UniProtKB/TrEMBL annotation:
PANTHER family: TESTIS DEVELOPMENT PROTEIN PRTD (PTHR13136), TESTIS-EXPRESSED PROTEIN 30 (PTHR13136:SF11). Residues 1-13 have a biased composition (Basic residues). It comes from the Eukaryota. Pfam families: Abhydrolase_11. This is KANL3/Tex30 alpha/beta hydrolase-like domain-containing protein. Residues 26-219 form the KANL3/Tex30 alpha/beta hydrolase-like domain. Residues 1-20 are annotated as: Disordered. It comes from Vigna angularis var. angularis.
Length: 225
């Protein structure tokens, strides 16, 4: 890509012509605790986000603990510096483009920590299955309450790591503008059971497409002010 001519999104003007709009965002997409950036889930969502957000790029990466022997992830706080460096490198590669942090589960939590850092110029955060409940069952809302930039949540209604009523209570306390899209019947990875799909006369693809369009609408509103 020729970085001397940044990609722009265009919108129709009142006279029917086309006018330049906000520079296309660059998305930095972090994986969850158990599967790397090369997993089928990550690759599918990477492609959906790139298309729906008209992103100049969707950057994925693996946290260091994923290399070598499979082992449990460290505490989220220990991944912040590595994640932050990815953000800085990407911002340097795509100057002028709004930076959007997206993440699955743990990756979204670390992304929110990175977005709260003053030296990272992040425009918005997308949380796909935010793990609001810790292993001990306690609500981990401190990171979300520190955010000041637009934050979008996509949650499965059957996600045990993020009961919707607890997320709703947290959202009401947040300083940051925020929105929520619920995937009805979805689990922590948004997978919907066959019986639920049959009862709702819908498909997994349709549910995920609706979610990604909700993300795109939120990001568009956030970037255009």
């Amino acid at each position: 890509m020729d970085l001397s001519r940044p990609a722009k999104r265009h919108r129709r003007s009142k006279d029917g012509g086309s006018e330049a709009s906000t520079l296309s965002p660059v998305v930095i997409f972090a994986h969850g605790a158990g599967a790397p950036s090369s997993s089928d889930w990550m690759l599918r969502w990477k492609n959906m986000l790139k298309e729906a957000l008209q992103a100049v790029d969707v950057v994925t990466f693996d946290y260091p603990y994923m290399s070598g022997k499979k082992r449990a992830p460290p505490k989220a706080e220990k991944l912040v510096e590595f994640h932050s460096n990815i953000v800085k490198e990407t911002a340097t590669k795509y100057p002028g483009h709004p930076v959007v942090l997206a993440g699955k589960s743990m990756g979204s939590r670390v992304g929110c920590m990175v977005a709260s850092m003053e030296d990272n110029n992040v425009s918005a955060v997308v949380c796909l299955g935010y793990p609001l409940k810790g292993m001990n069952g306690a609500v981990r809302d401190e990171t979300l309450l520190q955010l000041t930039i637009p934050t979008m949540f996509v949650q499965g209604s059957k996600d045990g790591l993020c009961p919707l009523e607890k997320l709703e209570a947290t959202r009401k306390k947040m300083k940051a503008p925020n929105d929520l899209h619920v995937i009805d019947g979805g689990d922590h990875s948004f997978k919907i059971g066959k019986k639920h799909l049959q009862a709702s006369n819908s498909s997994q693809d349709e549910a995920e497409e609706a979610a990604v369009q909700a993300i795109a609408a939120f990001i568009s509103r956030s970037l255009e002010g």
